[in-house]
Design brief:
single chain, alpha+beta, six-stranded antiparallel beta sheet, globular
Length: 651
């Protein structure tokens, strides 16, 4: 199915009926409450929504989850009330929204990572929820929020704790860890449904749970598919998914030692009597940097998958970064909030063309692997306090290989700021110069609560003040996602990855190819983050938890990789060849008219010398906001005042 995929949730009362009338003209599908009043409206492909019923109780799963209507009906029969939703959801796998309708009350939630989100607003006197904020904005006539647009100049998706702000005025996002309750009269409230696990499990004890969760996550995507496509970059994350998806066709089991073969067969026990998995097609695009070793490792992986179709466009066939940007400005941007995906818009269009042409309707990517199976530098702040001897041993090893200045590192480790104090300091430093890139100046990594993002040099004073206000407001109330800095950072990165996936999926689904990241499934996140933070990585070993979780499925010689590809060359070439188009976009830009940036400063930066991509760290975010704003605000004549550039927008 091509075109926008969306759904709205309506309360089981007369206010919901009135709201449905305003949404119905966009909808192609309707599902009712037991009362007969509309519950779900929207447009979605076959198999996207599964509903179970038992008497007056309804349960719906929307997304990728291998559950049947009969199985959901059995679960619905065990519902005592709407508060019981998570109990009857136990064992569901995949990535999905979960909803129940019980005795006039609706309860709904998305996923932990935010790959599945919910938004809500008042429509015709009732609270209506939807998975797309722009659908709600369209029905209420809402305009973009200038303060949130300014925050998107920092980075997109927004970092925690700004990530629960919605870019549309009057439309509110449901926090990822919360669910939404709507009563029959259309009144709404939120309640926590998920709490991060305490990272207390030794990594050896956590590997079986990670293996089981990741296997189930991939199986949730192969179920019912005739053809499936996947990235095969050569990195451990995407490579692991390819071997998991290709287990029926893979030679891995036959090429492993006997013990590994038995382990492989154990994971496949339930599938031996079932149908063969779908046909798998992999895609690998080649870096323009001849020293990037992704190609070497991808070739090693493909040698173990001889029965799989591998598509490898030549560099001349694969679009560069920032290509064909004018094509995006002439059509409605398919995302409901700004995103940096526009940098890769031409590549995504080519990916969809190549994979749908081979029969795929779903594409797997390795997003989430870095977030779950790496230990970010802030974990050292916790580690040195909990296990000082082990921490200093690790620090000595990493200092020797990465040349961290000891004095700078000690100052980082001595930092005792609370999360709120760190937010306040971040807000105060928004306009200070960006620190030099580690590639140019050797420095100790930050062990703070997060990254001190800076406003781009082309941001206006008003934009910077708006973002500063948002962060300072958050500093008064926001709590860290976990008590340990390392666990907090992992959770914050998971949320960023999930919301980035959500935008990419909106782009690709519109072209007939859904996008999935099994690492960002709730069960995988829970299993991985239950492992002690410091044990998710080990000096000298690359992602040891993931490597052990897929051992026996992924060949040993593929698991030996301990490097990661770098793409500065692709950035430089893409920027050089597409500089003229970028300059044109920032000559009378809508962001400039809205008073958020200075076009002249953007053009000056584009014409400067950029030794690393970090020198233009915010370009993709600003570019995404500019193209999104143009597509959402397209009157016949350009606005004459800054505020009009935003207020005249219509989804």
């Amino acid at each position: 199915m091509s075109g926008d995929v969306w759904f709205a949730i309506l309360p089981d009362g007369e206010p919901g009926v009135a709201a449905a009338q305003l949404l119905r003209s966009w909808a192609t599908e309707t599902i009712g409450h037991h009362s007969g009043r509309p519950w779900l409206l929207g447009s979605w492909p076959d198999g996207q929504v599964t509903v179970g019923a038992a008497g007056a109780r309804r349960v719906a799963v929307i997304g990728r989850c291998p559950v049947t209507a009969d199985e959901l009906s059995a679960r619905a029969g065990r519902l005592r009330d709407a508060e019981d939703m998570e109990r009857i959801a136990h064992g569901l796998t995949g990535s999905f929204h979960l909803l129940v309708s019980v005795d006039g009350t609706v309860r709904a939630r998305g996923s932990v990572s935010g790959a599945r989100r919910l938004f809500h607003t008042r429509v015709a006197g009732a609270t209506v929820a939807a998975d797309r904020a722009d659908r709600l904005a369209a029905v209420t006539g809402a305009s973009p929020d200038e303060r949130i647009l300014a925050a998107h100049l920092l980075t997109s998706p927004l970092p925690y704790p700004l990530d629960d702000h919605c870019v549309w005025q009057g439309v509110r996002a449901v926090p990822s860890f919360d669910c939404l309750l709507i009563d029959a009269d259309g009144r709404a409230s939120t309640r926590r449904w998920w709490t991060p696990p305490e990272p207390q499990r030794a990594w050896q004890d956590g590997v079986p749970a990670v293996r089981a969760a990741l296997t189930a996550a991939v199986d949730a995507r192969t179920a019912g598919e005739d053809t499936l496509s996947a990235d095969l970059t050569g990195g451990l994350d995407s490579t692991s998914l390819c071997f998991l998806a290709a287990r029926e066709q893979s030679l891995a089991a036959r090429e492993q030692p006997l013990a590994a073969r038995e382990l492989f067969l154990a994971t496949r026990e339930q599938e031996q009597t079932g149908p063969a998995g779908p046909k798998l097609v992999t895609l690998r695009w080649q870096s323009l940097d001849p020293d990037n070793d992704d190609a070497t490792w991808a070739a090693r992986a493909t040698a173990h998958l001889p029965d799989i179709e591998h598509v490898t466009p030549t560099p001349g066939q694969w679009p560069l970064w920032y290509s064909d940007l004018t094509a995006l400005t002439g059509d409605a941007v398919p995302t409901d909030e700004p995103g940096p995906w526009v940098r890769d818009g031409a590549r995504m269009a080519e990916l969809c063309r190549l994979m749908t042409g081979r029969g795929s309707r779903l594409h797997l990517m390795g997003g989430g692997g870095d977030e779950l199976f790496s230990s970010f530098p802030p974990h050292l702040h916790d580690y040195v306090r909990r296990h000082p001897l082990a921490a200093w041993s690790r620090i000595r090893t990493q200092r020797a290989s990465q040349h961290w200045p000891l004095g700078q590192l000690l100052r980082q480790l001595e930092d005792r700021r609370t999360f709120g104090q760190w937010l306040t300091a971040w807000a105060q430093g928004l306009n200070t110069p960006q620190p030099p890139s580690p590639a140019l100046v050797r420095g100790a990594p930050s062990t703070a609560w997060g990254v001190d993002l800076r406003m781009p040099p082309w941001a206006s004073r008003d934009a910077a003040e708006a973002v500063r206000d948002l962060i300072e407001e958050a500093a008064d109330t926001a709590e860290p996602l976990a008590a340990q800095r390392g666990q907090h950072t992992a959770l914050a990165c998971v949320r960023t990855g999930g919301r980035g996936l959500r935008l990419l999926d909106q782009v690709m689904s519109r072209q007939g190819l859904g996008l999935a990241a099994p690492f960002l499934d709730d069960q995988v996140i829970e299993a991985a983050l239950a492992i002690r933070v410091a044990e998710r990585s080990t000096p000298g070993r690359y992602k040891p938890v993931l490597a052990e979780a897929v051992r026996g499925i992924v060949p040993d010689d593929v698991l030996r990789r301990n490097t990661k590809g770098e793409y500065s060359a692709d950035f430089h070439v893409g920027l050089r060849r597409n500089r003229a188009g970028l300059m044109e976009l920032f000559d009378g830009s809508w962001l400039d008219r809205a008073g958020l940036i200075d076009d002249a400063a953007v053009r000056e930066s584009l014409l400067g010398v950029h030794p690393t991509p970090e020198a233009l760290r915010s370009l993709s975010s600003s570019l995404g906001s500019e193209i999104w704003l143009r597509a959402r605000s397209a009157p016949a004549r350009p606005p004459s005042t800054p505020s009009a550039a935003i207020s005249e927008g219509a989804p």
